[in-house]
Amino acid sequence: MIWFAYLEMGKTITVAAPGAASMVFAEKTMNEIRQMSPLQQSQVMCDLANHADTPICRTYGTWSANIKLGFWYQLGQWMEDGSVAPIPKGYELSANASAVLDGIKKLESGQQITVLRNCVVDMGYDPKKLGDYNRISEPVVPPQNIAERTKVSIEGVTNATVLNYMDNLNANDFDVLIELFTPDGALQPPFQRPIVGKEAVYRFFREECQNLKLIPERGVVEPADDGFTQIKVTGKVQTPWFGAGVGMNMAWRFLLTPDNKIFFVAIDLLASPKELLNFARG
């Protein structure tokens, strides 16, 4: 499935920008695979898809999402040039896989890469079974200089916490950003379970959210029980994997405490500008 998706990249699926992930962390494993026999290479890919307990699957499980995505992008290139065992000649996708790929082709560019990303993130050995391990991710870039930062504006929203969330995330200023959350605050990324607690949310920001560009557009503020405030914001997000030309339609659902701290924020990937508009009205 990943191989056929790679073949579509540049046609109907948005090309993931080469070099967006620091592939130096995967270099040893990739060279190990490249030196294997074709049969061994195919077995490694099957092992990754089947969550097998092998040294390579364990290593893969420690990587951040961006490194995993870059790993498969590089494997796709090597399969195409013959460095790594390609899909057997004449091989055809199953009817179910073909339907999935056709569905991906019809998605907007931002959603295409998100679907593929979610496919590769769940491969390899389950890191929850590894016990204590070192998470491998790209080096954390320094926050943007204050003088170089630009502030967002959101139609219908003047709440300082929400505006600061957007501004600090855009500036890679995760140390300041995390202080907007309560100690037991939570964040729910698209298609994932909530990440609970400041330490876990902080780690997520550092590993998954570097060099994002959030472009919020409009929002709605609503009262909630016990003095809490709900704020829904819609807009776009640009990532290093797409470049500046492609933005994903996103929605943020904030739940703020009476003292204006983030107790919970859910991030949703929306299908289209129409859905984005409907979400804002809902």
Automatic annotation (TrEMBL):
GO terms for biological process: light absorption. The keyword Membrane applies. GO terms for cellular component: phycobilisome. This is OCP N-terminal domain-containing protein. It holds the Pfam family Carot_N. Keywords: Antenna complex, Chromophore, Membrane, Phycobilisome, Thylakoid. The keyword Membrane applies. PROSITE patterns: OCP_N.
